[in-house]
Design a protein that fits this description.
This protein is mainly alpha-helical and 135 residues long. The protein is 48% helix and 6% strand.
């Protein structure tokens, strides 16, 4: 089961946050094919968002082929994403690193900036084209 956390100050639409958090749970193996998502009512009760917002998020996930709605039964995971289980040794290392960053006085935004910079180095969104090659 996934517990949605809505950040009303993030500037990210609520339905997008639900989609992103569901995808994160799929990537971490917290949700697997066959698992049932919380009902719209459960999400509304836990987050105080509009039911239509939850339904919009679930429709988007369905459009992407990640979940399927079964009339009268609920919404179920169709497929998983990625291969980064929640109990990965890499996660443990990252937890330790984050704890050290916090102990050294870094704020959340500082840590996010550092991580994003390193992530961009190793996983560029737009790979660099070697000089002399057409773009």
């Amino acid at each position: 089961m996934v517990d949605y956390r809505i950040d009303r100050h993030s500037g990210v639409a609520t339905y997008v946050q639900i989609v992103q958090q569901t995808k994160q749970a799929l990537r971490l193996g917290l949700l697997e094919p066959g698992d049932k998502l919380p009902t719209a009512r459960e999400v509304v009760e836990a987050t105080a968002v509009n039911p239509n917002t939850v339904l919009k998020a679930y429709r988007e996930l369905e459009r992407e082929g990640l979940v399927e709605a079964r009339r009268g039964l609920g919404t179920f995971v169709r497929r998983s994403l990625g291969a980064a289980p929640a109990d990965s040794p890499l996660r443990a290392e990252l937890e330790q690193w984050a704890a050290r960053a916090r102990e050294s006085g870094l704020e959340r935004e500082d840590v996010a900036a550092l991580f994003t910079a390193v992530l961009e180095t190793h996983y560029p969104v737009h790979p660099k084209i070697p000089e002399g090659e057409p773009s």
